[in-house]
Amino acid sequence: MKLLSIPTLLAVSATALLLSGCFESQPELQLPGYIEADITTVASPVSGTMARMAVKEGQNVQAGETLYVLESQQEQARLAEAQAKKAQAEAQTKNLSKGARQAELESLRAKLRYTKAQLAQAESNLKKSESLVKKNFVSEAQVDTDRTNVALAQAQVEEARAALRAAKEGARTDEQAAAAAQASAAQAGVDQVAWLLQQKKVNAPVGGVVQELYIRQGEFSATGATVLTILHSGSLRVRFFVPNDLRPQFMPGATVNVAISGCDKPVTARISRVSARPEYTQPMMFSQELRDRLSFLTEARLDTPAGCTAPPGTPVGVKVVASNAPQTSQAPKAS
Description:
Elements: H1 6-24, E1 30-36, E2 39-43, E3 48-53, E4 60-61, E5 66-70, H2 73-97, H3 105-133, H4 140-169, H5 172-199, E6 201-203, E7 208-213, E8 220-221, E9 226-232, E10 237-243, E11 255-260, E12 267-278, H6 288-293, E13 295-302, E14 315-319
Antiparallel strand pairs: 1-10, 1-14, 2-9, 3-5, 3-8, 4-7, 5-6, 7-9, 10-13, 11-12, 11-14, 12-13
Helix pairs in contact: 2-5, 3-4, 4-5
């Protein structure tokens, strides 16, 4: 047998030690995943120019906190007009309760014809809106407005009929009922404009962090247009795929450690869901090797510590306990 020289023996020994050190210092196994969160899209309920944006990107908001306000000068003017009509109707009702003079029949008939014409016009507008909303040419808010206008016109027709009937019969109680109907119609007008004015001020539906602004101050927002998005507080979670042989280690309720770039130490997360179906299958009988290739979508809620940010989409690694990790390599056998 040929003997090896001393330099050759030293080289072989160094190589063996190096390989041994490599196998002993293998990096810990991590399952790849990514951060996900619940995000609410806030859309404009009505159209208008952005008068004031009350929040900034990255700002924490509470549920009910004002997000933005749309320009509302026209609605405020309409509200003042509706309130004036309401006051006039209430004054007329009060005046009739004291005993007012009878209205002339011809004047009341003319008023009835006028209100019927208004009702016909309102019904025509409603039919047009209902046909156009199916083609997305008008918004649902416009259809609701037209329906309210029909209701107001119907109330005005009933008011005119009641006044004409009261004048013919000469019954003071009927005149008072007509005045009460007019007051109710005026109140409906106030409620309609007040509701529309309320839609100009949008509050946060949920608490969280403002992620992105799509419309700035001074820009026009159409009905249904996305204005901003809010990331829900406490909704950060990690989604990752668990191999079939490691699935018992990642059951709901178990705690795992998640490595996030930029964080000094791993972040803890509690598993909340494990998919019942594997993500990879083959139309054949599964051997032991093929069964281990199956993976299951798993979700875990993150407990993000202070100073460690993890926005949605961030890639992460879920650490696997060393004793349960599959062996990826073996030391070479001695010949």
